[in-house]
Amino acid sequence: MRYDKVKQTLGNVFNRHPFLRKCFYFMLDVLLLRAWHIKRELRRQKKRLPANASLLDAGAGFGQYTYYMSQLGRQWQIKGVDVKSEQVNDCNRFFARINRRHRVRFETADLTAFADPDVYHLALAVDVMEHIENDIAVFINIYHSLRKGGLLLISTPSDKGGSDAHGNHGSFVDEHVRDGYNINEIQEKLRQVGFSHTEAKYTYGAPGHLSWLLSMKFPLMMLNISKLFFVLLPFYYLPVLPFCLLLNLWDVHASHRTGTGLTVKAIK
Predict the structure, then answer these.
(1) In this predicted structure, what is the pLDDT of residue 168?
(2) HEC string of 106-145?
(3) Average pLDDT over residues 64-69
(4) What is the pTM for the complete model shown?
(5) CA distance linking residue 237 with residue 27, whole number of Å
Protein backbone atom coordinates (compact mmCIF):
# COMPACT_ATOMS: atom_id res chain seq x y z
CA MET A 1 0.00 0.00 0.00
CA ARG A 2 1.54 3.29 -1.09
CA TYR A 3 0.36 5.19 1.97
CA ASP A 4 3.30 7.60 1.90
CA LYS A 5 2.71 8.34 -1.80
CA VAL A 6 -0.92 9.29 -1.15
CA LYS A 7 0.10 11.56 1.73
CA GLN A 8 2.72 13.22 -0.47
CA THR A 9 0.16 13.83 -3.22
CA LEU A 10 -2.17 15.47 -0.72
CA GLY A 11 0.72 17.50 0.67
CA ASN A 12 1.63 18.82 -2.78
CA VAL A 13 -1.94 19.97 -3.34
CA PHE A 14 -2.11 21.88 -0.07
CA ASN A 15 1.44 23.25 -0.25
CA ARG A 16 0.54 25.99 -2.71
CA HIS A 17 -0.45 28.58 -0.11
CA PRO A 18 -0.04 28.91 3.68
CA PHE A 19 -3.82 28.92 4.15
CA LEU A 20 -4.13 25.66 2.23
CA ARG A 21 -1.33 24.12 4.28
CA LYS A 22 -3.09 25.11 7.49
CA CYS A 23 -6.23 23.47 6.12
CA PHE A 24 -4.16 20.36 5.43
CA TYR A 25 -2.89 20.34 9.01
CA PHE A 26 -6.44 20.72 10.28
CA MET A 27 -7.57 17.81 8.12
CA LEU A 28 -4.74 15.60 9.46
CA ASP A 29 -5.56 16.59 13.04
CA VAL A 30 -9.20 15.63 12.55
CA LEU A 31 -8.68 12.36 10.67
CA LEU A 32 -5.59 10.95 12.40
CA LEU A 33 -6.48 9.55 15.80
CA ARG A 34 -2.83 9.58 16.87
CA ALA A 35 -2.97 13.40 16.56
CA TRP A 36 -5.80 13.43 19.10
CA HIS A 37 -3.73 11.40 21.57
CA ILE A 38 -0.49 13.33 21.01
CA LYS A 39 -2.09 16.77 21.23
CA ARG A 40 -3.72 15.78 24.50
CA GLU A 41 -0.33 14.68 25.89
CA LEU A 42 1.33 17.89 24.69
CA ARG A 43 -1.30 20.00 26.44
CA ARG A 44 -0.55 18.08 29.63
CA GLN A 45 3.22 18.57 29.23
CA LYS A 46 2.85 22.32 28.67
CA LYS A 47 2.27 22.72 32.41
CA ARG A 48 5.72 21.33 33.26
CA LEU A 49 7.71 22.96 30.46
CA PRO A 50 9.36 26.39 30.84
CA ALA A 51 7.96 29.26 28.81
CA ASN A 52 11.07 29.29 26.57
CA ALA A 53 11.42 25.50 26.28
CA SER A 54 13.41 23.87 23.49
CA LEU A 55 11.60 21.07 21.64
CA LEU A 56 12.59 18.52 19.01
CA ASP A 57 10.20 17.10 16.42
CA ALA A 58 12.11 13.96 15.45
CA GLY A 59 10.83 12.83 12.07
CA ALA A 60 8.78 15.97 11.49
CA GLY A 61 7.26 14.96 8.15
CA PHE A 62 4.82 17.62 6.98
CA GLY A 63 5.41 19.63 10.16
CA GLN A 64 1.87 19.43 11.51
CA TYR A 65 3.01 18.66 15.07
CA THR A 66 5.66 21.37 14.94
CA TYR A 67 2.91 23.77 13.88
CA TYR A 68 0.72 22.70 16.80
CA MET A 69 3.59 23.05 19.29
CA SER A 70 4.41 26.51 17.93
CA GLN A 71 0.79 27.46 18.62
CA LEU A 72 0.75 25.85 22.06
CA GLY A 73 3.93 27.53 23.32
CA ARG A 74 4.33 30.98 21.84
CA GLN A 75 7.95 31.27 23.05
CA TRP A 76 9.03 27.69 22.49
CA GLN A 77 12.07 27.11 20.30
CA ILE A 78 11.40 24.13 18.04
CA LYS A 79 13.60 22.16 15.69
CA GLY A 80 12.10 19.73 13.20
CA VAL A 81 14.30 17.01 11.75
CA ASP A 82 13.46 14.76 8.82
CA VAL A 83 15.40 12.58 6.41
CA LYS A 84 13.45 13.91 3.39
CA SER A 85 15.00 17.18 2.22
CA GLU A 86 11.99 18.17 0.12
CA GLN A 87 9.74 18.10 3.18
CA VAL A 88 12.31 20.03 5.21
CA ASN A 89 12.50 22.72 2.53
CA ASP A 90 8.70 22.93 2.29
CA CYS A 91 8.40 23.31 6.06
CA ASN A 92 11.07 26.01 6.26
CA ARG A 93 9.31 27.98 3.52
CA PHE A 94 5.92 27.62 5.21
CA PHE A 95 7.11 28.72 8.66
CA ALA A 96 8.99 31.65 7.11
CA ARG A 97 5.80 32.73 5.33
CA ILE A 98 3.82 32.68 8.60
CA ASN A 99 6.59 34.61 10.42
CA ARG A 100 7.75 31.89 12.79
CA ARG A 101 11.17 31.25 11.30
CA HIS A 102 12.80 33.01 14.28
CA ARG A 103 11.76 30.17 16.62
CA VAL A 104 10.99 27.24 14.31
CA ARG A 105 13.56 25.67 12.00
CA PHE A 106 13.92 22.41 10.13
CA GLU A 107 16.96 20.50 9.00
CA THR A 108 17.64 17.38 6.99
CA ALA A 109 19.17 14.63 9.11
CA ASP A 110 19.13 10.89 9.69
CA LEU A 111 17.89 10.25 13.23
CA THR A 112 20.31 7.33 13.58
CA ALA A 113 23.15 9.87 13.31
CA PHE A 114 21.57 13.08 14.66
CA ALA A 115 22.23 14.46 18.16
CA ASP A 116 22.18 17.86 19.89
CA PRO A 117 23.62 17.07 23.33
CA ASP A 118 21.62 18.35 26.35
CA VAL A 119 19.45 20.79 24.40
CA TYR A 120 15.80 19.78 24.49
CA HIS A 121 13.18 19.72 27.21
CA LEU A 122 10.91 17.52 25.09
CA ALA A 123 11.39 15.33 22.02
CA LEU A 124 8.50 14.08 19.92
CA ALA A 125 8.53 11.05 17.61
CA VAL A 126 5.18 10.44 15.95
CA ASP A 127 4.76 7.79 13.26
CA VAL A 128 8.55 7.48 13.04
CA MET A 129 10.05 4.53 14.90
CA GLU A 130 8.18 1.92 12.87
CA HIS A 131 10.08 3.22 9.82
CA ILE A 132 13.61 2.88 11.28
CA GLU A 133 15.41 -0.45 11.56
CA ASN A 134 18.12 0.73 13.96
CA ASP A 135 15.77 2.08 16.60
CA ILE A 136 18.32 1.72 19.42
CA ALA A 137 20.61 4.26 17.72
CA VAL A 138 17.72 6.73 17.54
CA PHE A 139 16.82 6.22 21.20
CA ILE A 140 20.46 6.78 22.21
CA ASN A 141 20.70 9.98 20.17
CA ILE A 142 17.45 11.39 21.53
CA TYR A 143 18.48 10.46 25.08
CA HIS A 144 21.70 12.46 24.69
CA SER A 145 19.83 15.34 23.05
CA LEU A 146 17.46 15.74 26.00
CA ARG A 147 18.25 17.76 29.09
CA LYS A 148 18.15 16.06 32.48
CA GLY A 149 14.49 15.45 33.25
CA GLY A 150 13.57 15.83 29.58
CA LEU A 151 10.76 13.79 28.07
CA LEU A 152 10.57 11.64 24.95
CA LEU A 153 7.01 11.22 23.67
CA ILE A 154 6.40 8.48 21.08
CA SER A 155 3.38 7.39 19.08
CA THR A 156 3.84 4.15 17.15
CA PRO A 157 1.89 1.05 16.08
CA SER A 158 1.70 -1.85 18.51
CA ASP A 159 2.26 -5.50 17.72
CA LYS A 160 -1.49 -6.08 18.09
CA GLY A 161 -2.05 -5.34 14.41
CA GLY A 162 -0.89 -1.73 14.32
CA SER A 163 0.44 -1.96 10.76
CA ASP A 164 -2.55 -4.04 9.68
CA ALA A 165 -0.27 -6.91 8.63
CA HIS A 166 -1.98 -10.21 7.90
CA GLY A 167 -0.01 -13.45 7.56
CA ASN A 168 2.32 -13.23 4.57
CA HIS A 169 0.59 -10.22 3.06
CA GLY A 170 2.76 -7.71 4.90
CA SER A 171 1.87 -4.33 6.30
CA PHE A 172 -0.94 -2.13 5.05
CA VAL A 173 1.68 0.61 5.16
CA ASP A 174 4.55 -0.91 3.22
CA GLU A 175 7.09 1.71 4.33
CA HIS A 176 7.13 0.14 7.82
CA VAL A 177 10.19 -1.94 8.71
CA ARG A 178 8.37 -3.62 11.63
CA ASP A 179 4.74 -4.54 12.16
CA GLY A 180 4.56 -2.85 15.54
CA TYR A 181 6.15 -2.73 19.00
CA ASN A 182 5.40 -4.93 21.96
CA ILE A 183 4.40 -2.65 24.84
CA ASN A 184 7.10 -4.10 27.11
CA GLU A 185 9.77 -4.40 24.40
CA ILE A 186 9.86 -0.71 23.54
CA GLN A 187 10.04 0.30 27.20
CA GLU A 188 12.89 -2.14 27.81
CA LYS A 189 14.81 -0.67 24.87
CA LEU A 190 14.35 2.83 26.27
CA ARG A 191 15.54 1.77 29.71
CA GLN A 192 18.56 0.05 28.17
CA VAL A 193 19.78 3.33 26.65
CA GLY A 194 19.44 5.16 29.97
CA PHE A 195 15.93 6.53 30.43
CA SER A 196 15.09 6.50 34.13
CA HIS A 197 11.32 6.11 33.87
CA THR A 198 9.02 4.83 31.14
CA GLU A 199 5.30 4.33 30.76
CA ALA A 200 3.18 3.16 27.85
CA LYS A 201 -0.49 2.80 27.07
CA TYR A 202 -2.49 1.30 24.25
CA THR A 203 -4.32 3.55 21.81
CA TYR A 204 -6.51 2.63 18.86
CA GLY A 205 -8.66 0.31 20.95
CA ALA A 206 -11.88 -1.07 19.50
CA PRO A 207 -13.45 2.37 18.81
CA GLY A 208 -10.22 3.82 17.44
CA HIS A 209 -9.55 0.88 15.18
CA LEU A 210 -13.02 1.10 13.69
CA SER A 211 -12.55 4.82 13.15
CA TRP A 212 -9.23 4.16 11.39
CA LEU A 213 -10.83 1.65 9.05
CA LEU A 214 -13.61 4.04 8.09
CA SER A 215 -11.72 7.33 8.01
CA MET A 216 -8.29 6.24 6.73
CA LYS A 217 -7.89 2.71 5.40
CA PHE A 218 -10.94 2.50 3.14
CA PRO A 219 -10.47 6.00 1.62
CA LEU A 220 -6.75 5.34 1.01
CA MET A 221 -7.55 2.05 -0.66
CA MET A 222 -9.91 3.89 -2.99
CA LEU A 223 -7.33 6.58 -3.78
CA ASN A 224 -4.74 3.93 -4.61
CA ILE A 225 -7.14 2.53 -7.19
CA SER A 226 -7.76 5.88 -8.88
CA LYS A 227 -7.34 9.58 -8.13
CA LEU A 228 -10.88 10.03 -9.42
CA PHE A 229 -11.99 9.01 -5.95
CA PHE A 230 -10.83 12.46 -4.74
CA VAL A 231 -14.08 13.73 -6.23
CA LEU A 232 -16.13 11.19 -4.29
CA LEU A 233 -14.38 11.64 -0.92
CA PRO A 234 -16.53 14.57 0.29
CA PHE A 235 -19.67 12.52 -0.30
CA TYR A 236 -18.10 9.55 1.50
CA TYR A 237 -17.01 11.58 4.54
CA LEU A 238 -20.28 13.48 4.91
CA PRO A 239 -22.08 10.61 6.70
CA VAL A 240 -18.96 8.79 7.96
CA LEU A 241 -16.93 11.59 9.57
CA PRO A 242 -19.32 12.52 12.45
CA PHE A 243 -19.41 8.87 13.52
CA CYS A 244 -15.59 8.64 13.33
CA LEU A 245 -15.18 11.78 15.45
CA LEU A 246 -17.32 10.24 18.18
CA LEU A 247 -15.23 7.05 18.00
CA ASN A 248 -12.01 9.10 18.26
CA LEU A 249 -13.31 10.97 21.29
CA TRP A 250 -14.22 7.65 22.90
CA ASP A 251 -10.78 6.19 22.15
CA VAL A 252 -8.89 9.18 23.59
CA HIS A 253 -10.76 9.17 26.90
CA ALA A 254 -11.02 5.40 27.39
CA SER A 255 -8.48 3.04 28.95
CA HIS A 256 -7.69 0.16 26.61
CA ARG A 257 -6.54 -3.31 27.67
CA THR A 258 -5.13 -3.71 24.16
CA GLY A 259 -4.96 -1.68 20.97
CA THR A 260 -3.21 -1.32 17.65
CA GLY A 261 -1.34 1.84 18.72
CA LEU A 262 0.98 2.84 21.56
CA THR A 263 1.73 6.12 23.27
CA VAL A 264 5.04 5.86 25.10
CA LYS A 265 6.72 8.33 27.45
CA ALA A 266 10.30 8.14 28.69
CA ILE A 267 12.09 10.54 31.07
CA LYS A 268 15.84 11.13 31.10
Answers:
(1) 44
(2) EEECCCCCCCCCCCEEEEEEECCHHHCCCHHHHHHHHHHH
(3) 98
(4) 0.91
(5) 12
pLDDT confidence of residue 99: 97
Spatial CA neighbour of 136 closest among 200, 196, 193: 193
Helical segments of the chain, H only: 3-14, 18-31, 33-46, 64-72, 85-97, 135-145, 183-192, 206-212, 218-225, 229-253
pLDDT, tens digit, for every residue of 222-238? 877 887 888 888 999 99
Amino acid at 188: E
Determine the Cα–Cα distance for residues 34 and 92; give it in Å rounded to an integer.
24
Cα separation, 221 vs 213, whole angstroms: 10
The single-letter code of the amino acid at 105 is: R
Q: Which of 54-63, 95-104, 218-227, 247-256 comes out lowest in average pLDDT?
A: 218-227
- The count of C-alpha atoms lying within 13 angstroms of the C-alpha of 146, restricted to the half-sphere facing its C-beta, is 26
Domains, the chain:
3-267 (3.40.50.150)
